[in-house]
Prior knowledge:
By secondary structure, chain A is of the alpha+beta class. Chain A contains 20 helices and 28 strands.
Amino acid sequence: MTTAYEPNVVLSTKEYDVVGTRPIRHDGVDKVTxxxxxxxxxxxxxxxxxxxxxxxxxxxxxxxIDTTDAESLEGVRAVVTSKDFGNLPWTYExxxxxxxxxxxxxxxxxAGVAAINSHIADHAISLIKVEYxxxxxxxxxxxxxxxxxxxxxxxxxxxxxxxxNSESNTNVAKHIQYSTGDIEKGFNQxxxxxxxxxxxxxxxxxxxxxxxxxxxxNQDGRLHIWLSSQGPFEIRGDAAKVLGIPVSNVKxxxxxxxxGFGAKFSVFSSPIAALLSKKTGHPVKVVNTxxxxxxxxxxxxxxxxxxxxxxxxxxxxxxGQAYLAYEAGAYPGSPVGGGANCLFAPYDxxxxxxxxxxxxxxxxxxxxxxxxxxxxxxxAIESIVDELAEKLxxxxxxxxxxxxxxxxxxxxxxxxxxxIGCIEVIEAMKSHPHYSTPLKGPNQGRxxxxxxxxxxxxxxxxxxxxxxxxxxxxxxxxxxxxxxxASISMMAAEVLGxxxxxxHPSVVDTDSVGYTxxxxxxxxxxxxxxxxxxxxxxxxxxxxxxxxxxxGTDSNSLEMNNGVISSxxxxxxxxxxxxxxAQLNDTGGPIVGRAALTTRGPGGxxxxxxxDVEVDPETGKVAxxxxxxxxxxxxxxxxxxxxxxxxxxxxxxxxxxxNEEYFxxxxxxxxxxxxxxxxxxxxxxxxxxxxxxxxxxxxxxxxGVRGVGEVSIAPPLPAVANAVYGATGIRxxxxxxxxxxxxxxxx
Amino acid sequence: xxxxxxxxxxxxxxxVDFLCEPRQSLLEVLRxxxxxxxxxxxxxxxxxxxxxxxxxxxxVDSCLVLGVEAAGSEINTIEGVxxxxxxHPIQQAFLENAALQCGICTPGFIVASKALLEAEPNPSxxxxxxxxxxxxxxxxxxxxxxxxxMDAAQKMA
Lengths: 747, 157
């Protein structure tokens, strides 16, 4: 076990009483005792169980569907197909929920069955007869972009940045282009130009809890969905849209959520369960199997990138050009935009040209996965920067430092960086003992890399109620996927001068709190932080007003510090928050503080990794020997959970780099849709993941918070690749770097 | 339709009777029949460990055990780890070390770790990592889980 780097929080400029401490999370006891209720743990009375029939083919026309035998099986209560959407028009969203005339990937839903138990439902779907006309399929962007490639969507045209559409049928849904400076002039100024190509495989978020929905379409027309989702309000809106009902008729109750990493934003099978509920008059529960999760949830894209960088002898990057093609899956919407935004973001490159393509392929629709688009891009740029440093004989961190983005640097998409911590992260890496510790043996290598993610902001709504014993009830709408109840409560406690334990957070349903955008984009601690600061300040003002009215004085002469309200002019006037709280009902009534806002200015996040590996020259297997993660998080509200985000993201990045991929059969189906064959990192595969939290405060947040959840997944891909190069002398340009792929080259 | 079998077993020290179909797994019985939802289903094929329970002193994936096989056994689940005296030291260590994020894998890790520390009170980091290799966690990168088990071992010594 390596010794943790102490202290691991650097550059802090402001210390607080509660913020920055490490209390036990509020929902912790329920989660270590098994009491916490996740979506699949919800049982409604009279509930039926649903299963979904899915396409066995990657691409086929549906000629006919016969559900007669399934319907007549004992225990079956209803069967639905796309026909049950009634007269609602065909849309990509509706087609994704249940295919009508064509299936676009293996796993594409075709029908749903509700029965008295899941075994009978399972049996029933096997009795549905579907006649297919199989079509040629495309599994990669290379195949999909070929001339005369099989076309997935007949109406699809390539849309450019100005909204113009191509004339002919295509699998390319979008072409984005970022251009700045003069790309040719930049390359002419360069002494060295390196151009490389990279391919990455489709990977899955791999959350342990399969997607689940229990849906009740009530006789009064109201739809109630219990689920495990990152975005209860997004699901409310999307379910209403797919089912063609008013959004106010949908209530979503978020149960605890067992991981998501960006994937759990989709309505998935909930509209199927809704149709089954409407047909039967019962609540209907649908829980994906693990294989369904792999084959038909929303993985993150495989990609192809070609990147060219020009640099001077002294190490100044003059020009950067890139071609990015990302798999969208069966319908448009890959994170190629994220990739294009993040690719060159760590560097101040005066001349740039980026072309990005969103390409549909016969795979499930892709979704967000932790800094979506960024890891693929980081793999490309950071592999090349490493090569440039070596060719110029420069220290790889110094080369990055020379070209690092800072406040005022323009991002590729034209946005000017606000205060960012790119330089500070690189400096922290340089001064860390890991960087200067020699490697210990043959076949070992050290890789470094950095990465960027924009971070997100958005809507948040929070209500605080004061209890008579001086505690606070905090009502919020952000699904708590990894400790955000704790961080939000801590920020409320900080404002009110009370312990974190005196705040009791609840995540409530969409009828019980104002609109709150989903738990994604590293947005929660940022947006909920701003809103809870305002809500707690609202409570504070009301407390001062109340004390003023009790004392018959002006509230402007009162202040509240460390949980005590006192007068600045009369030192006899003093009351604790707790004592005042006990008097509220008799002195004018309860106090409820509130705030709701669309926040802006999440600040952007940079991370960097130093990773040591040992490569077995016989088998090509890569062992991770040591790993240190660095990240600018602005301010760590609860440092333990910030470290946890960094460690979790790092290990997902390592899995992406080394093991994880969708193996595709010749027929376009996935060959490895189980946790046995889709190999995610185990405890045994890893060392401790050391962390260094860099705190470059975000000026747009009351506590300096930047988002923390995502960026740490990006640098490990190139850091491992650069380390493998150090160990073997081979630059890997294809992910994952499986033992076979390395051994095939080393031998 | 399948007929149901009567099964008597002991769960967390209490004698429990239930009816189940021969095809129902122990996990399904715990969750769907007995409404003990602390054991989680992550894969239903023995690869994630979220459904880990202790069966006659051995940790098993309850999705790979049939309900009828539980007849006459002693089963201990996550629901039986804390007592009226409070949390088990492993549960406390998971909280203090922030060894969970989403928490879906946590019941399995706690049941598995408890069996380890009962058999080997002072395991090395390597031993803990090997023992827990049957439990997948996607949130934490395992660092804080391994530290929590080491911390619990120290406190239980």
